[in-house]
Structure formats: structure tokens, C-alpha cells
Write a structure and sequence with these properties.
Strand content: under 5%
Radius of gyration: 61 Å
Shape: flat
Strand order of the largest sheet: 1-2
Number of strands: 2
Enzyme class: transferase
Keywords: Membrane, Methyltransferase, Transferase, Transmembrane, Transmembrane helix
Protein name: Uroporphyrinogen-III C-methyltransferase
Order of helices and strands: HHHHHHEHEHHHH
Largest sheet: 2 strands, antiparallel
Number of helices: 11
Pfam family, one: HemX
Helix content: over 70%
EC number: 2.1.1.107
Distance between the termini: 162 Å
Length: about 350
């Protein structure tokens, strides 16, 4: 053994140091460094993730703020565009306010003028209103009774004023009341009901030719008691026996052409239409049309229906009577008192400011 090898050996009695201890210490250090490195990387990753999340939130907030800013900008633009319209509306409202103020001053002026009118002028105005209502009742509704009552009430109002200057008004009112009360009253409702009764009886009418009249042969069927007439009696007996099986009759008039069921229904509908048109002309006070429709219905009744039937005779008589009725009525076209009332009221309104 060489000296170098001997020097490398440990002294006698001393155990050599194991080399594994140094290796274990180095491994622990490496593992520790690795764990620190991994912890640093994990912490850095968490930090980066938090920073990215915070940045995303800030971007989202910024986006919302940007959208809100755009909305506000759009609303501001709309406001700028509608500003002229608002100005025009405000100007129009101002003009309307000025008109209302002027109207208010006008009404106040009229109220002040009214305070200086005669105390009974309101009764005169009420009389004028009653006269106008009487005209509507007379000319629109042909109500003579109500029109007369309204004119009488108007006269009572003027009488209560006790003003001698209004005597011409009362005189004209008296003439109007007399004209209304003396006018003939037309019972259009009653006439319309009579035409309606004829409409209901159309189905009971009998059309000509449906029941022809027949007559029997005037032959004596008596059998004589003479033996010499045995041959004649035999013929008569045979004839009487045969009459139980065969009957021969002759017509007393020429055979008329019968209407078909469709034609009969058409005829009835046309007759009904003429009577309905007569009712309409009655409501419209068309005298000529009223008579024309009744005459046409009467002509068809004579041409196509049995004259001897009681329903036909009743309808013919009613149609003749209705044609003689006067459906127009002769009412006064105007009231003599109305222009006098309007003139008197206008004069009193015009003289009212002078009394202040």
C-alpha cells in the first residue's frame, strides 16, 4: 500500500464519516427552494388573476359609463332639437292666454252691463226662448198642442213684466196662438195604423180564377107515374144511378188563366210594398206619393183578386177612404212675434251701457 493510500485512510480506532449526511442536507435545501419557488409562482399567479379580474371589472364599468354617456349625449341632442318646438308651444300658449284674458275682460264687461239692465229683462229673454221651443215643436214634430202651450207661457212671461211698450209683442203672440190652435191636426199615427191593418190582411185575399163557378145542367130527374112513360122513366133511373159515379157540369164564364204559386207570391209582395211605401210617404208628408201608392195598390186589387170576397171589399173601401185624407197639415210657417222679440232684446242690450 502506498503512502498516499495510507494517508487517505482514517486513523485506527476512528470510524469514517458517512457521506450520506451531506447528501440529505443538500436535498432538503433543494426541496425548500422548490417549495418557495412554487409558492412564489402561485402567489404571483393569484396576483395576476386578481389584477386581470379587477381590470375586467374596470373595463365593464368603463363600458357602462360610456353607454350612459352616449345616452345622455343622445338625450341632450334630442333636447336641443326639440327646443324650437318647445319655444313655439310656449309662444302659442302665451297667445292663447292673451285671448283668454281678453275673453275674460269681455265677459266681465258684459256682466257689468247686465247689472245696469232692467230687472225684468230676463223674463223677456225667457219668453223668446219659449217662442223658439214652440217653433221646434210645431215644425219639427208637428205637435200643435205643445206649441200652443209654449206660446201661452211666453205671453204670461211678457204679461208679468207689466211694461206698456211690450203690448205689440202680446198682440203678435195672440195672433200666433190663434193660428196654431185653429190649424187642423193630422192624425198620422192613426192613418199609419190603418195602412198597417191592410198589410196584415193581404194574406187573406183570394186571387181570381182559383175557384171557378160551375153550374149543373137544368134536367128534371123526377119519374112519372104513367106506365106509358116507362121508357123515359127507365132512362131517368139509369141517369140517376150513373150520377153517383160521373158528374158533368158546365162553366158559367170563360176560363181565366191562373197565376203560378211564384207569381201569386210576387203579386202579394208587390202589393205589400206599395202599402209600405204609402206609410213612408205618410211620415214624410208627401201627399202625392201617398195617394199614388194607394191607387196602385187598389188597381192591383181590382185586377187580380176576387171582387166578391169580403176581404177584398174591405180593403177597397179602406184604400178609397185613405186616398181622401190630407196628410200635409197647414201650419203657420213663421211666428209674427219672433222678429219683434229679437229686435226688442237687441235694443235693450244696446242701451244697457248708457244706463251706467
Amino acid at each position: 500500500m502506498s503512502e498516499a493510500q495510507e494517508s487517505a485512510l482514517p486513523p485506527a480506532g476512528q470510524e469514517p464519516k458517512p457521506h450520506t449526511v451531506k447528501r440529505n442536507s443538500s436535498s432538503k435545501t433543494a426541496i425548500g427552494l422548490l417549495l418557495i419557488l412554487m409558492a412564489g409562482i402561485g402567489g404571483f399567479s393569484i396576483y395576476v388573476y386578481q389584477q386581470q379580474r379587477q381590470t375586467a371589472q374596470e373595463l365593464a364599468t368603463l363600458h357602462d359609463e360610456l353607454q350612459q354617456s352616449r345616452s345622455e349625449q343622445s338625450a341632450l341632442q334630442d333636447l336641443l332639437e326639440t327646443q324650437p318646438v318647445v319655444k313655439e308651444s310656449l309662444a302659442s300658449l302665451g297667445e292663447q292666454q292673451l285671448k283668454l284674458d281678453g275673453r275674460q275682460r269681455e265677459l266681465e264687461q258684459k256682466w257689468l252691463e247686465k247689472e245696469h239692465q232692467r230687472p225684468n229683462d230676463w223674463m223677456l229673454a225667457e219668453a223668446g226662448y219659449l217662442v223658439r221651443m214652440a217653433g221646434r215643436k210645431l215644425w219639427l214634430e208637428q205637435d200643435l198642442v205643445t206649441a200652443g202651450i209654449l206660446l201661452t207661457d211666453a205671453d204670461s212671461r211678457i204679461q208679468a213684466i207689466a211694461d206698456p211698450s211690450l203690448i205689440p209683442l202680446r198682440k203678435a203672440l195672440a195672433e200666433d196662438i190663434a193660428a196654431v190652435k185653429s190649424a187642423p191636426e193630422v192624425d198620422r199615427e192613426g192613418l199609419s195604423l190603418r195602412v198597417g191593418t191592410l198589410l196584415d190582411n193581404i194574406d187573406q185575399l183570394k186571387i181570381k180564377g182559383l175557384e171557378p163557378k160551375l153550374e149543373q145542367d137544368p134536367i128534371s130527374d123526377e119519374v112519372s107515374d104513367q106506365l106509358s112513360d116507362w121508357q123515359t122513366n127507365l132512362e131517368k133511373s139509369a141517369k140517376q144511378f150513373a150520377e153517383h159515379f160521373v158528374t158533368i157540369r158546365r162553366r158559367s164564364s170563360q176560363v181565366e188563366a191562373l197565376l203560378s204559386p211564384e207569381q201569386s207570391a210576387y203579386l202579394q209582395e208587390n202589393l205589400r210594398l206599395q202599402l209600405q211605401l204609402a206609410q213612408l210617404s205618410l211620415l214624410r208628408q208627401e201627399q202625392a206619393n201617398f195617394r199614388n201608392h194607394l191607387q196602385k195598390a187598389q188597381s192591383w186589387l181590382s185586377d187580380y183578386y176576387e171582387a166578391d170576397d169580403s176581404a177584398t171589399q174591405f180593403m177597397q173601401k179602406e184604400l178609397t177612404t185613405l186616398q181622401e185624407a190630407d196628410i200635409t197639415g197647414h201650419y203657420p210657417k213663421t211666428f209674427a212675434v219672433q222678429p219683434l222679440l229679437e229686435k226688442t232684446l237687441a235694443e235693450r242690450w244696446q242701451t244697457a251701457p248708457a244706463a251706467r
